[in-house]
Amino acid sequence: MLQPKLKSKVRCTDLDIGEVTKVVLDPLSHEISHIVVSMNGSGERQVAMGHVQAVTDDFVQLRAASTDILALPSFKRDDYVTTHEVEISHLEDNLHVTPGEVLVPLPDLEKNVKRRTFFMNFTHVIGFLIGLPLAYPILRFLMKPMYAEFDNQWLKVGNVSKIKQEDVGVQFKYKKKVKEVFMPEYEIEKNVWILRATPELLEKVYSDKDQEFRDAKGKTIWTNKKDVPYVAFSGKCPHLGCGFKWRQHKALGQVFLCPCHLSIYDAGGKVLDGPAPRGLDALPVRVAANGEVEIIDMEFKAGTKSQVRIV
Amino acid sequence: MKAGDMDIKHSSPATIPDQPPGIIDKLVAFLDERVGLKEMQAKMLNEPIPGGSRWAYVFGSVLLFIFAMQALTGMLLMFYYVPTADHAYDSTQYIIHEVDYGWFLLSYHFWGSSAMVVCVFAHMSQVFLWGAYKKPRELLWLVGLALFGIVITFGFTGYLLPWDQRAFWATLVGVEILDKAPLVGDFIARFLKGGPTPGQMTLSRFFVLHVMILPAALMALAGLHIFLFRVAAPAGPFKGTVEEIKAKTDYFFPRQIWKDIVGMAFVFVGICALALWEPVVLLDKATPDPGDYHPEPEWYFLFYFQLLRLKLFAGQFGQFLGAVALPVAFMVLLVALPFMDKDPERNIFKRPIALISWIAIMVVIALFTVAAVINREFLD
After folding, report:
1. What domains can you pick out in chain B, each with its CATH number?
2. What is the C-alpha separation between A110 and A99, in angstroms, rounded?
């Protein structure tokens, strides 16, 4: 059945009673549920679509007699909102009540434009030509500080006289000058754990081999000799980079313990328990005759099985 | 919008009758003629809520309110905060101890972020349990997930800004977790840190993210979220026949707006109370040595922090599982959810897998959070 149109004449079984002045939409089904009929001057009536028998282009035929329709209560405009005043998406999608199309003339300049697609693509191309040359400079701009060169300076961290006992982790704090982009060098506080190792512990740490440190080109920077009794561990936990401590553990005795994710290492840096993927990172260390300790500050990527130097 | 406009509407939402024109009415008429205010207002307020307004529907509006307050307090904090490694800590202390009501605004901002996470969580749980992510609301769900990511990133970036020990270590570990992503992890971590180790560049980058990029992204996506919500219409209750639901349906204004505003007032009072009773206290200034401090993330990340302590996630592969595979798999599942779950059934009591999964996740979060708290004792 066609949808009733506005202004259509409404005919009852006996006579014409007026015309369609409004239609009412069901908010759930989005279908027309009622028509509102002007009763030739005696007010408006709301007529359910169930009363409608047939709809033609300009006629709505009802099943009821005119007296029945007149007996319906008056249409109460205040019980309704217009479709412009309510937010029900797609409410009007099924609606074809508008009497005819509503048109506006096309501007003269828009007539006979042949290359709409060309202009559309041209717009995109210009957009890309503006955007693309910017992408690389922006990326480089943001990447400036990301890959700094390694600094292999020896740093003084303190005197070994601070170490009273063998095979016990002692924290040494030191300051490192860091140059960050534009800023004058400023100092950050760092820490390293140093042990005076017994021969047994040295054996565990070095497995009877000197430990070599190489730069990116493979050139040897320094070698920790296996018989030098001082061992230095980077203060950064190889699990996820927290700072670990020297602690008494109930079952394992004195250990390095990281409070973050509870990785536990023995005095030689070996993993005893917890999630760490590798042991503590030994650093290049040298001790002068007067007991002054120097290290090369290095940091390694956390969370990997093998050591990957990042600082 | 003036209060009078709303009062007029309660008897009939259809018309806005003429008043004897006062100066404000004339101004409104002037604007209405040029902007179409009244129609816009009507459209905003006359949104049918299938099955009627409910207290359960307040979370979306409450989240908008929390965000507005975070924006306000955040802007105020920037009047004194200095985002440099040298001054971030001192300027934050200055806000807390010297600036009038600085402690309150900072504490409000701090607790507001927790409230945000709690409400996002409630909002998402609700959509999940109500089955409101299903067709035709898939895009609404996806944009919601993006907003969830933004809220989490907000918390993560904001946490660093005071530059105390708590801030520094939570950030350091958080970035190391990102570093574990295959191929791009190293780049992302260096990109965020602005170098191989955290420092001034990290603070600058987190600051820009926190005060410029994330707010813009959140506003854009929240707008899209509300637009999609309006296009798709509210899902409504999962029980009841069409006729029953229709009989209970009302408009967004006034009953739902009333409930929303009460919800906002409740949250506002709650955040104020927390700010008063538990104002923010900074730890020592950040140094790369935690000293006696046991690093820990914000409370809503504690369960994940504790999860990473599991033996299951030990070693390089375990770490990949915990830091990358698990969170990515979880997010992928959430993204795929409306496309995998095509069953139109929305009643949670007829969706056993959904119900059990939700309970399981809640139990894991609760257990591991408690475990993390208990673990604190054993560290000292």
Report:
1. 47-339+349-379 (1.20.810.10)
2. 27
